[in-house]
Design brief:
The protein is an alpha/beta fold. The chain is built from 11 helices and 12 strands. The strands form 3 sheets. The chain has a 7-stranded parallel β-sheet, with helices on both faces. A 3-stranded mixed β-sheet has the order 7-9-11. It is globular, with a radius of gyration of 19 Å. Bound molecules: nicotinamide-adenine-dinucleotide.
């Protein structure tokens, strides 16, 4: 199978590329290396150093490669940047995605996979949110993810492109930047390993669904089988979506305690002011992915954190 992976030099995308290559697929990576790293690029993948907003460049790359599946993981992922500069966020995250949908149809792709966000589109979820929950994003980043899901619905209904939106929880694992803006496990582990107490913004009682990158990769492999089997025509955008998480909610305070225990750091965290616009509760109901995709998260949070600590200690 020929699979184009946008964002294939980034954290999640590079793990995806590695697993697709191991499974014997041919892969084209499209990435502008804005946050992705050249050292993450799999040498067996073709690489196009292009911006997803550049329709002519994507057109050229697809004309040579003829992708059967387009797996779209390139994005501006910094929520605070989306708040400061929502127009920039929308050009990358909305317009760039539309360019890819259009080029996927133009070049006859059989399916489109999109990295959406369960954490950013539902808003506060005191109970685990199913895919049918009302979308109530509170950041431009979340609004952009929701908008792309509507465009995917249009492209399915009007142009016949089968599509799947994988709504991730908080993904963590090796290669996530410990100096980045997202990824509390890597950021805290990086600080603790250097002997510094990390800062917890707010009370630390905010809860999230943390899912290991290997489990996310597994969901992406299953999404291909689902697309090729000819999924039913969706009646709403939610019918094309799957929550991908661990199904377990953990507070930042609990996360800190577990990680400090693994690293052997005895000190207390520093508490800072809560960040404006940050959710208190983000919980995901993953039963649809379990039933329809056969998805089953394997990695315990403790084991996954150890993998991040080992990776950062190398
Ligand atoms: N990490 C998470 O917890 C999480 C949660 C929900 C959704 N997601 C989504 O998963 C995807 C991957 O996220 P990640 O955590 O691996 O982030 P990342 O920053 O490591 O990866 C994003 C990649 O996209 C590339 N990119 C950015 N703008 C581009 C552009 N205009 N043209 C071409 N390439 C561009 C970057 O260089 C990078 O390689 C994103 O769509 C993100 O929104 C991530």
């Amino acid at each position: 199978m020929r699979i184009a992976v946008t964002g294939g030099a980034g954290f999640i995308g590079s793990h995806l590329v590695d697993s697709y290559i191991s499974a014997g697929h041919e892969v084209l990576v499209i990435d502008n290396l804005s946050t992705g790293k050249a050292q993450n690029l799999n040498p067996k993948a073709l690489f196009s150093n292009a911006d997803i907003r550049d329709a002519a460049a994507v057109d050229r790359a697809f004309a040579q490669f003829h992708p059967e599946i387009v797996n779209h993981h390139a994005a501006q992922i910094d929520i605070r940047r989306s708040v400061d500069d929502p127009a920039f966020d929308a050009t990358v995250n909305v317009v760039g995605s539309i360019v890819l949908l259009q080029q996927a149809v133009r070049h006859g792709a059989r399916g489109f996979i999109f990295a959406s966000s369960g954490g950013a589109i539902y808003g506060e979820t005191p109970e685990p949110a199913p895919e049918t929950a009302v979308k109530a994003p509170i950041s431009p980043y979340g609004a952009a993810k929701a908008a792309v899901e509507y465009y995917m619905f249009v492209y399915r209904r009007t142009f016949g492109l089968p599509a799947v939106a994988l709504r991730y929880g908080n993904v963590y694992g090796p290669r996530q930047d410990p100096k980045g803006e997202a990824g509390v496990v890597s950021i805290f582990a990086g600080a603790l390993l250097s002997g510094a107490a990390p800062t917890i913004f707010g009370t630390g009682e905010q809860v999230r669904d943390y899912v290991y990158v290997g489990d996310v990769v597994n969901a992406n492999l299953r999404a291909i089988d689902y697309l090729l089997a000819g999924p039913p025509v969706p009646r709403t955008p939610g019918d094309q979506a799957f929550n991908i998480g661990s199904g377990v909610s953990t507070s930042v305070n609990e996360l800190y305690r577990m990680l400090a225990g693994i690293v052997g750091f005895a000190g207390d965290p520093v508490y800072g002011d809560p960040r404006p616009g940050e959710l208190m509760e983000s919980r995901l109901d993953i039963s649809r992915a379990r039933t329809v995709l056969g998805f089953s998260p394997e990695m315990s949070f403790e084991q996954g954190m150890r993998k991040v600590v080992d990776w950062l200690s190398r």
